[in-house]
Design goal:
Elements: H1 2-12, H2 14-17, E1 24-27, H3 41-48, E2 57-61, E3 73-77, E4 80-85, E5 89-93, E6 96-102, E7 111-117, E8 121-124, E9 130-137, E10 148-152, E11 157-162, E12 176-178, E13 181-187, E14 198-203, E15 208-215, E16 222-226, E17 240-255, E18 264-281, E19 284-299, E20 304-322, E21 325-335, E22 340-353, E23 359-372, E24 378-392, E25 396-410, E26 415-417, E27 424-427, E28 434-446, E29 450-461, E30 469-479, E31 484-494, E32 502-514
Parallel strand pairs: 1-8, 2-8, 9-15, 22-27
Antiparallel strand pairs: 2-5, 3-4, 3-6, 6-7, 9-12, 10-11, 10-13, 13-14, 15-16, 17-18, 17-32, 18-19, 19-20, 20-21, 21-24, 22-23, 24-25, 25-28, 26-27, 28-29, 29-30, 30-31, 31-32
């Protein structure tokens, strides 16, 4: 469908393309643009929409994928750098002889073209080179953190490191521009002559190749390589990806700590439904990250009690100006699906106070008290500002967001127990702080199976009477096998309506089943 629409557009603009300005167009077509993510060279030039400049010539190097993801092309005259430009964009120069250098690798390995441009002439460099992207994934189509190295087989020269990416931090695949030929891809640090964990591919002139390497997440070995069906033909323009997994654990314990004769049995069940939806096409990056977690606990002789209940919906959109900086907007909602109930060991008389501390109601001989109704508290966060990636290495990544934030907490019939008197319950007010927000997302990967992820949200309210709001989550995961991991979670939360910081932490053995 995409190819048909491009052909229609090309025919529709064909008369215009023959009369772009009044200048002469020089173009030597090589290869077939059907494999590109971008339209043909001349259609790219037309879409750019720049007017000719009197007395100057124009150089145009088309993009096969996306100009922002491909290496810049540089223009030299008499050995001096005239300037650099993204592929898919024009560069205007005075008449004369120029050297154009672009592509991947060191300067000696890059592609070189010499041109002699006249006044009011447009020179289009039709690609006789190749474009290549390489994604590294595991068996479940999740991006895998493994750097690669690419060699040209004919000369055994290395053309550089291909770094792993993390789409959750807004990173995206970079395009290599290479000369046609046979290339070998191995793991970073391995010898060129290795006979294990390698793949080769032949790059054809003027073509784009979306290549995938599949790595076994347990052994860290190559298990497959090639062009996936979702990346081939007309489907290769799809920029959406989806991830879904079900995690859970069941803990059964028995102990006689209460009595030397009686063994008490406790049962704990905990589950998570985790799914992510990602759209990635530079300069756009949209991530929807949704998490539902629920846990119940039953002690012998007692009823099942809710131990955890949380639904979090996170949506973040980043528009990149450069690969490391852009503008962001976000919307986050956090709530729960079931009532929160506090149970007494024995019946008691309880009192409820309103926002001003006045008595609302008293109840006699109650066994339990409802603290939170369904869906409340409901927390919403909206933010708008600047997204920066100051650190991006193989083992560490850091994202920093600074902007305006508006947070709302709706507490309809939400109560908190008095810290000193267990029969006294206070109604919690709604909260609507707004101010400057700072969000930090970091990821550290060690030893191949240990990862530490930290997310910190801080809001500095404009109102001097409001306290700073803080939301922190630190997640440590030690992967034992593909489906089993030992995890530690720490959450800290400070909100203006409470006088103390809420802390939650737990250690669990996670069993995972990947849905898609």
């Amino acid at each position: 469908m995409r190819l048909i629409s491009i052909i229609i557009v090309q025919f529709a603009f064909l008369p215009i393309l023959f009369t772009i300005g009044t200048c002469q167009v020089k173009s030597d077509v090589v290869g077939d643009c059907d494999t590109w993510l971008m339209p043909s060279s001349q259609l790219q030039l037309y879409i750019e929409g720049l007017d000719d400049r009197k007395g100057l010539g124009r150089i145009f190097v088309p993009a096969m994928t996306c100009g922002a993801d491909e290496p810049l092309y540089a223009i030299f005259k008499d050995g001096e750098l005239v300037g650099e430009q993204n592929t898919g964009s024009s560069f205007f120069v005075k008449p004369g002889k120029y050297l154009i250098i672009f592509g991947s690798g060191n300067r000696d390995q890059r592609i070189k073209r010499e041109i002699d441009i006249q006044r009011e002439e447009t020179v289009i460099l039709e690609p006789d080179w190749c474009a290549l992207t390489i994604e590294v994934i595991d068996e479940m189509r999740n991006y895998y953190k493994q750097d690669l190295q690419i060699f040209r087989v004919e000369s055994a020269e290395s053309y550089g490191i291909i770094p792993a990416i993390n789409p959750e931090l807004g990173e995206h695949l970079q395009t290599l521009l290479l000369l046609p030929g046979l290339y070998k891809i191995i793991m970073r640090g391995e010898d060129f002559n290795t006979y294990v964990n390698f793949t080769t591919l032949l790059l054809e002139p003027g073509s784009y190749t979306p290549y995938s390497i599949v790595i076994n997440s347990e052994t860290n070995d190559f298990t497959g390589a090639g062009i996936l069906a979702s990346s081939a033909g007309l489907i290769h323009g799809r920029n959406w990806s989806i991830y879904g997994a079900l995690h859970g654990n069941v803990i059964l314990t028995g102990a006689n700590d209460a009595s030397s004769k009686d063994i008490k049995t406790n049962l704990s069940i905990y589950g998570q439904l985790d799914n992510r939806l990602l759209y990635e096409k530079f300069p756009h990056n949209y991530l929807s990250n949704n998490l539902l977690e629920f846990g119940i606990l039953r002690q012998e002789g007692a009823k099942f009690q809710k131990s955890r209940d949380r639904l979090r919906l996170k949506n973040t959109y980043v528009y990149y100006l450069l690969s490391w900086i852009g503008g962001y907007s976000r919307l986050e909602a956090t709530t729960h699906l079931f009532k929160t109930i506090y149970r007494f060991d024995e019946s008691k008389n309880v009192s409820f106070l309103d926002l001003s501390g006045r008595l609302i109601e008293e109840k006699s001989n109650v066994d339990e008290v409802g603290l939170e109704p369904v869906f409340f508290p409901l927390e919403l966060k909206e933010g708008l500002g600047v997204n920066v990636t100051p650190l991006r290495t193989f083992i560490a990544r850091l994202n920093l967001r600074i902007g305006l934030g508006y947070w709302q907490t709706y507490n309809s019939d939400v109560y908190r127990q008095n810290s000193n008197i267990d029969t006294l319950f206070h109604r919690i007010p709604d909260s609507f702080p707004q101010g400057m927000e700072t969000a930090l997302v970091s990821n550290l990967s060690l030893l191949g199976n240990l990862s530490i992820t930290t997310e910190i949200d801080i809001l500095f309210p404009f109102s001097k009477d409001s306290d700073i709001a803080l939301d922190l989550e630190n997640f440590i995961s030690l992967r034992v096998t593909k489906n089993i991991a030992i995890e530690h979670t720490l959450r800290l939360k400070r909100v203006p309506e409470l006088s103390h910081t809420i802390q939650e932490q737990f250690i669990s053995i996670r069993l995972s089943y990947f849905l898609f």
